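User: Can you recover a sequence for this backbone? Please restate the input before giving your answer.

Assistant: Of course. Working from this structure:
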């Protein structure tokens, strides 16, 4: 996949990690402003990148240096799956966007927690058994692909690493088929 990085390419080199629609990719070739990325079968299976057409707009973000100011939630560029835009409610220059997602993704989310949609760090406003929603400010709508997104569009989803870690740990220690009891909690050190 070739992406025109424009002026951003001046700060890049072969081997750099760059997120394209939220998926962390490695620059394999760099000619002027054009960067070539090699997509594995796993990347094509788990993301929307294989569905892009020539000329598609994408969200591009360089990897954060460990010395940079941290101004959002931890986004690794490791896509957990995809979701589909279910509804868009415009409110002047703002918008609420609802996404239909699989239960496996939704189980890794919490209200007021973080989610990355096509690499855009957002806060979950609502959550139910089949979807989640986010509120979008004018800046996000102007500077990202969500500003031109339509109902039915597929997007890449990365859930919050902290929520995933806690869920994984709890899945290991909590009983799967029996109810949680005070005795079990005491046994686990609570």
């Amino acid at each position: 996949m070739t992406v025109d990085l424009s002026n951003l390419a001046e700060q890049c080199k072969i081997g750099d990690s760059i997120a394209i629609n939220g998926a962390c990719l490695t620059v394999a070739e760099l000619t002027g402003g054009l960067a070539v990325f090699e997509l594995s079968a796993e990347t094509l299976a788990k993301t929307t990148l294989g569905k892009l057409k020539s000329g598609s707009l994408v969200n591009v973000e360089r990897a954060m240096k460990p010395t940079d100011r941290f101004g959002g939630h931890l986004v690794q560029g490791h896509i957990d799956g995809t979701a589909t835009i279910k509804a868009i409610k415009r409110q002047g220059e703002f918008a609420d966007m609802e996404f239909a997602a699989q239960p496996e993704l939704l189980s890794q989310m919490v209200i007021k927690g973080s989610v990355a949609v096509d690499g855009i760090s957002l806060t979950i406003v609502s959550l139910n058994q089949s979807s989640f929603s986010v509120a979008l400010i004018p800046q996000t709508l102007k500077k990202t692909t969500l500003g031109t997104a339509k109902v039915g569009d597929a997007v890449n989803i990365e859930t919050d690493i902290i929520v995933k870690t806690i869920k994984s740990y709890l899945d290991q220690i909590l009983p799967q088929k029996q109810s949680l009891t005070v005795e079990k909690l005491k046994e686990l050190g609570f």
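That completes the design. The chain has five helices and eleven strands.
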